[in-house]
Every structure is written in C-alpha cells, then in structure tokens.
Amino acid sequence: MTVWFIGAGPGAPDLLTVRAQRILSTVPVVLYAGSLVPPEVLAGARPDARLVDTAGLDLDAITSELVGAHGAGQDVARLHSGDPSIFSAVAEQARRLDAAEVPWQVIPGVPAFAAAAAALRQELTLPGVGQTVVLTRTSARATPMPAGEDLASLGALRCTLVLHLAVQNIDQVAAALLPHYGADCPAAVVARASWPDEVVLRCTLGELAPRVRAAGIRRTAIIVVGKVLAHGGFRESHLYSAARDRQTAGHDHPAAGHDHPAAGHDHPAAGHDHPAAGHDHPAAGHDHPANGDREEPRP
What we know:
Strand order of the largest sheet: 3-2-4-1-5
Order of helices and strands: EHEHEHEHEHEHEHEEHE
C-alpha cells in the first residue's frame, strides 16, 4: 500500500492535476488540511472514502493515521495545498514513513507562487531585467531561518523575491527590503490566489505595508518584489529571435545551464516532466500545506 503526497494546487479545484484526480478518486483514505483544501477538491474523492481533516492534528497523530491505513491495507491520499516541494512539511512525514517502512510517492501540484504570477499576468523572469527568482519566507512564529537566509541578506541580491508566509509580518518585510530595493521598486501581493475571493494588490515597495493593512490581508498570500513587475521595456529573448540559426541549433527547448536552446523541438520530449523546485521543512507538529498557502503556526 502507498501513501500519495499530492499537491492539491493553490485552491481552484480545476487546477488539480489529472494524475492527482485519478489517485484521489480511487483511494479509500484521504488526509487534508481543512482550512486550505476547499470542499470542491474533496468532491473528487470516492463516495465511501474516509476523510480526515488534519488541521487539528500534530505530526504524531498524522503519522499514526498514515501508518494505520497502511497496516489495514489501504492506500492514502495525503493532500497538501500548492506543491509538496515548497514549505509543505512533507519531508518530516516521509522520514517517519521511511522509518515505519511505509511506501510513499509524490504527485506535484500547481504552486501558490505560480498561481500568484498568473493572477498578476506576470512572467517572473524577463530578459535583461531579472533571471533569478528567490522563494523564501519569514521566521516569525515559525521555524527559524538558516544563517544567511534573512531578508536583509537575500534583499542584497536585488533579484525577484517571492515571499510565502510573510504577509503577517509586512512591516518587517518592507523595512528589511527598502534599503536594497528602494521605495519606488514595484511590488505586489496576491491573497488566496485562484480562489473566488482572490485579492490582487500592485504598488511600490514603499506603499506595500499600508496597502496590505488597508486591504485587511493577514494570511494565505504571496508577496512579490522586483523590477520585473513593472518593466515593459525588456529586450526580446534569443529563443525566438529571427537572427537565431535554426538549422544548426538542434532543439527549441532550453537545456539546463544554456541560455541559447537548440532548435527543432518547440516542446519538451514526450514523457518528460519538468517539476518546479524549492523546499523547506516547517516545524513538526504543525499542519502546514505547501507553497505559502499553509496556515500560519498557532501560538
């Protein structure tokens, strides 16, 4: 029997992947965070499935549910909002499953930062403007950040910064970033990306904290800071340039580490997935879903 860690996406049920829908519709046990996985997603579970809301459970209780289902010969869908690779607490659950010799697999989902970028209608990497994106969070009321990953240090890079689990600390965020990005740097906040009550704010970094407070945004939000948010004058990439030699290039999909992809194929080869990366492990005992959609730790 297998535990399936499933990225349930940022909220909209139709952003659940086909693979996730297939597993969800067949397993007899489903664990989910009730405050972050909407009922419409759970509607895809089989009618007789046992649904377990993990919002009030600690890591020991969650592990007990997973191991117990395995002992009973039952597959489990463990739903995490967003994508399991980012701020999901999947790693600590998987470690315990390994110790208990329980098989597990991961099904990726649409991460919250990608849903936020879609709401902003924004590419986060623009030629000549910004080609680096940092996904991070703040440490207030959560697991401390590793040395060198504080906002002041990351802000010194002046690349596109995407913050999860940080909107409650918006004053501290602005104060840490202003010396590096400047008050006129474009910024945005997307709350509850892809949900019916989604909120999108665009402003400058100097206006960010008062705008967020005025909108009453306190959780489940992504903060984006960087020049790419307001740069319409970026140069066009080499990928589709008329000057590019398409006879000798080879493949049209960028290879890792190369800025000039080879021609020939406009899409990745069939059968190959390109999952997003980035991961952090919140403190055990909290049911923190993935990608910044997780609920902030309780005091």
